[in-house]
Amino acid sequence: MPNRIIRDAILDSERYHSVPPLSRLAYLELLLCADDYGLVPLSPVYLRRHTTWADGLSDAARRKVLTDIADHDLIRCYAVGGAEFAYVPRFGNVPRSVKPKWPAPPPELCGNEINNLMQKMRSRCVADAQRLHTNAPETETET
Predict the structure, then answer these.
(1) Do 23 and 69 form a contact (C-beta atoms < 8 A)?
(2) Is the per-residue pLDDT at 58 higher than 90?
(3) Dihedral angle at the C-alpha atoms of 3, 29, 34, 73, nearest 10 degrees?
(4) This prediction's pTM
(5) How large is the angle between the packed helices 21-33 and 59-71, nearest 10 degrees?
(6) 71, 79, 105, 112: least buried by Cβ within 10 Å?
(7) In the prediction, which pLDDT does 100 show?
(8) Which of 8-12, 94-98, 103-107 shows the lowest per-residue confidence on average (mean pLDDT)?
């Protein structure tokens, strides 16, 4: 089962086609690296290990690519505790985890989207747990 599906609607995106080819590759690879909530770390080491576009680029060139992507609202950059992250707006993924893998962005970047997704996942987990309980009597099986 695939863990990430990139829909073909991206090929019709004005935002996507308004950035240079290297920035498009970076965006696609960031989509693949993002957690279920559309969050991805932007540290140089993480990007070199998990993407091909950042390999061999200077820090200034890497920042230029990320700035190109952010200027067209394909990602929204933020920092938590000195570490850099990106939030992918319009991510459209259905989370499978109860909470994000990476620190959440400030509300001014994503509104209540991440909190709403986390709440939905928590309620889904509670509903699944309640379905596991039954009122049927226990039975013993002789072997």
Answers:
(1) yes
(2) yes
(3) -130
(4) 0.75
(5) 80
(6) 112
(7) 75
(8) 94-98
Nearest to 84 by CA among 26, 40, 42: 42
Q: What is the DSSP string of the chain?
A: --S----GGGGG-HHHHTS-HHHHHHHHHHHHH--TTSEEE--HHHHHHH-STTTT--HHHHHHHHHHHHHTTS-EEEEETTEEEEE-TT------SSS-SSPPPPHHHHTTHHHHHHHHHHHHHHHHHHHH---SPP-----
Q: Cβ(74)–Cβ(15) under 8 Å?
A: yes
Q: Is 111 exposed, middle or buried (0-12, 13-18, 19+ CB in 10 A)?
A: exposed
CA-based nearest residue to 4, from 41, 27, 39, 36: 36
Give the tokens for residue 9: 């609607």
Topology adopted by domain 8-132:
Arc Repressor Mutant, subunit A (1.10.10)
Token output for 73:
């609202």
Question: CB neighbours of 140 closer than 8 A, spacing ≥ 6?
Answer: none
Positive or negative torsion for Cα 87, 47, 5, 3: negative
